[in-house]
Amino acid sequence: MSADPLDAYAALRARAAQASGLHVVHDASPLTIKPASLRRGAAIPPREWLYGYQLVRRYITVLVAPGGVGKTSYSVVVALSVAGGKGLMGDWVHAQANTLCCGLEDPEDEFDRRVAAAMDHYNLDDEHLAGRLFIISGRERRLVIAALDADGMSIAYPDKDALVRLIRENNIGFLVVDPFVNSHELEENSNPHINAAARAWAEVADATGCAILLVHHTRKGAIAGDADGARGASALIGAARAAMTLTSMSPEEAESFDIREDARRLYVRLDDAKSNLAPPAGKARWFHLASVALGNETPAYPKGDNVQVIEAWEPPDVWKELSVADLNAILDRIAAGNGQGQRFSGSRRGRSNTRWAGNVVMEMFDVEEGQAGKVINAWLKSGLLVEGEYSDPVTRKKAQGVTVDHSKRPG
Q1: Going by fewer Cβ within 10 Å, which terminus of the chain is more open, N or C?
Q2: Cis preceding linkage at 179, omega within 30
């Protein structure tokens, strides 16, 4: 008699799982199928978005960021927004929801500092959050959603059932896990292991109807908007229905926004890295890390604490500041040259280059160098400014200069 192919398949899966260091535990309930409901339109309930298009009930969202860029500050302000029912950074809170912050890295005092600083910065009073914000401190007692069992092969879920019960008892609608790596004791680079931990969090979300934000670290060399930049196994991003990256402003971005190098680290960008349930955002969102003094000075610590609080920030946009008439006035000056028969240059070699066309923008409308560079570069790219060789009447040598293609003028 030939072997049952289902038994053979189960044996093959078991051997593969054993090789990966993970024991497959089969669900004891019978496997069934049922006809699709074929519900249409209004008969299907809408997705229960909680915060913008980032957090949705019964799903997990992953925030990926390197250390020191403000991911904890971001998650705290999102938590206060949801708990208070009001978006503090410009995002729409669809419904107020009790919030549980699982701070699994820092002591409770540090969480208190971050909340106090954010409340001061956003002018929130105690009534705004009383009875709506809850915490679990990983320094007091570890929270373990998944771990290897005593046999070293099976996956156990030590705190899953207790956490589901507490979420239900306290009517929690939003849960922050910061950081995800401290919520399990599995192999971080194993896809089967991380899939088990991520799936456990997804099951908590489904069982309680809450939205879950997992805060995670990046690997070295990660870039903005790249979901693959998450540290460890890729299964975590695969299990999430939304993922975001938070990264520091690059030197090039700082130059274009006229941000000093010593202040660049205080500006961060949020990018959609994965958005399965909603259209991806059209562009990066920017935030600033403000410093808030807590006023907790003591004789031993006379300066007290300053805590970073994240806030929405809008990059300067020279195109919004200049009208069509302004732009054409700039082009008139560039077309006329410098008055000595010399054309302006399209390339920038520092402020010493007095013939750089960007100087015209800066002089006429008090625009900073980085913003002026954005205007000139955009015009060169579009062909409105054309750079070519000409005979310089002053130096009597060949030189590079720009002319204006009047057919492409704005307006």
Answers
A1: N
A2: yes
Q: Give the ranges where 262-405 is alpha helix by DSSP (H).
A: 318-321, 324-336, 358-365, 369-382
Within 8 A by CB and 6+ apart from 353, the residues are 345, 347, 359
Between residues 230 and 135, the one the model is more confident about? 135
Q: Smallest Cα–Cα separation from 325: which of 364, 274, 279?
A: 364
Can you tell me the distance from the alpha carbon of 255 to that of 259, in angstroms, rounded to the nearest whole number?
6
Strand partners, 61: 213, 242
Of 50-59, 324-333, 345-354, 369-378, give the lowest mean pLDDT range. 345-354
Question: Of 228-237, 267-276, 350-359, 380-389, which range is least confident?
Answer: 350-359
Phi, psi of 302 (to 5 degrees): -65, -20
Q: By the 8 A CB rule, do 157 and 185 touch?
A: no
Nearest to 97 by CA among 110, 112, 87, 111: 87
The predicted pLDDT at position 294 comes to: 96
- Whole-number Å distance between alpha carbons of 160 and 175: 13
Q: Can you give the C-alpha Rg of the chain in angstroms? A: 28
Contact between 61 and 55 (Cβ < 8 Å): yes
- Give the chain's domains with CATH numbers: 46-312 (3.40.50.300), 318-408 (1.10.10)
CA neighbours closer than 13 Å in the CB half-sphere of residue 411: 9
Q: How far is CA 80 from the centre of its chain?
A: 17
Q: Give yes or no for residue 6 having a pLDDT over 50.
A: no
Can you give 300-323 as a three-state secondary structure string? CCCCCCEEEEEEECCCCCHHHHCC
Model pLDDT for residues 73-105, shown as the tens digit of each residue: 999 999 999 999 999 999 999 999 999 999 999
Cα separation of 133 and 111, whole Å? 12
What would the two tokens of residue 350 be?
Answer: 């520092």
C-alpha–C-alpha distance, residues 83 and 86, integer Å = 8
Q: What is the pLDDT of residue 351?
A: 42
> Given this model, what pLDDT does residue 82 score?
97
Least confident piece of the model among 141-145, 277-281, 303-307, 365-369 = 277-281
Q: What is the pTM of this model?
A: 0.79
